[in-house]
Amino acid sequence: MINGFTLSCPMPPLDFDVITLGHGSGGALTNQLLDSGVFTLLDNEFLHSRHDGAILDLSGKTAFTTDSFVISPIFFPGGNIGDLAVNGTINDLAMCGAKPRYISLGFILEEGLPVEELWEIIYTIKKATENAGVQVVTGDTKVVEKGKGDRIFVNTTGIGTVHPGAEIDAGRVTEGDAVIVSGTIANHGIAIMSQREGLSFETEVQSDTRSLASIIMKLLDEFGPEIHLLRDPTRGGVATVLNEIARQAKVGIEINENNIPIVPQVHGACEMLGLEPLYVANEGIFVGFVDAAHATDVVELLHGLPGSEDACIIGRVVDQHAGQVVMQSAIGGRRIIQMLPGEQLPRIC
């Protein structure tokens, strides 16, 4: 049991209970740590070489991304920093229209981190990579002195092959495009806040962290070039993504508050905390700009795929107020949804 969460996989017997500076020395303790965790759980032909790099066979257009994860707390309802890191990296590739294939994994561990916490994180990384069909092919581990980190930070790099039907580009966003959200918003941010603030709900709010790769590949198989742009609204939420696209594509965007999917408990928590749900982070949904003639069919396909059952059209691209996002409110008024001026929820991913 760690912080109220039960280990998903039993640990092997070890000679140490916590991470020490010696585990980052590159010597015997480092090898013991890697043998008992990383190499045991993430075993594949690339890691067998125990090399600092990996030789990969790629052809065609290739997508590449890198990210770092510093979330607090590192365990939260619905996941932990491990599957969050994997899913976040996979989703960045998927938003490029790419099928994720390989990732690298870097750990910065704080002296004193309980080994059972690290084991659980690596195990969830194993499950997340297996579910998404990707392999961890190389990585690195460093240890910093107690008080110089926050238990664990994770750095990832991802590589994927671009779907032959993908034409994902902000320059393709045009007047009339439908704006689609693939699921309920703000779940991740409120799950984190519930842990930080000790909030309780009738039904536990869980992070939506998940891989979006299989959903995106099926969309591209079916609709290909009709999918103009994809973005995952992580930090800054849906509002930030829409503002970025409006400015980049030099278009106006109009959305309808009544169409935005949100879980009642999440909506209530946002009201209680004084948060605008559109700015709250997500980790398992995407925003899509789709040719209007195919938008209904896209949503219908999404409704049949696990993880996107609540997908809906929330707005459209217009030829007015270029660079701005305007929302039709639930009570009938209209207001501009501004770019978030600062960090609404720090350390969210």
UniProtKB/TrEMBL annotation:
<feature type="domain" description="PurM-like N-terminal">
    <location>
        <begin position="51"/>
        <end position="162"/>
    </location>
</feature>
<dbReference type="Pfam" id="PF02769">
    <property type="entry name" value="AIRS_C"/>
</dbReference>
<dbReference type="InterPro" id="IPR010918">
    <property type="entry name" value="PurM-like_C_dom"/>
</dbReference>
<dbReference type="InterPro" id="IPR036921">
    <property type="entry name" value="PurM-like_N_sf"/>
</dbReference>
<dbReference type="GO" id="GO:0051604">
    <property type="term" value="P:protein maturation"/>
</dbReference>
<comment type="similarity">
    <text>Belongs to the HypE family.</text>
</comment>
<dbReference type="Pfam" id="PF00586">
    <property type="entry name" value="AIRS"/>
</dbReference>
<dbReference type="InterPro" id="IPR016188">
    <property type="entry name" value="PurM-like_N"/>
</dbReference>
<protein>
    <submittedName>
        <fullName>Hydrogenase expression/formation protein HypE</fullName>
    </submittedName>
</protein>
<dbReference type="InterPro" id="IPR036676">
    <property type="entry name" value="PurM-like_C_sf"/>
</dbReference>
<feature type="domain" description="PurM-like C-terminal">
    <location>
        <begin position="175"/>
        <end position="326"/>
    </location>
</feature>
<dbReference type="InterPro" id="IPR011854">
    <property type="entry name" value="HypE"/>
</dbReference>
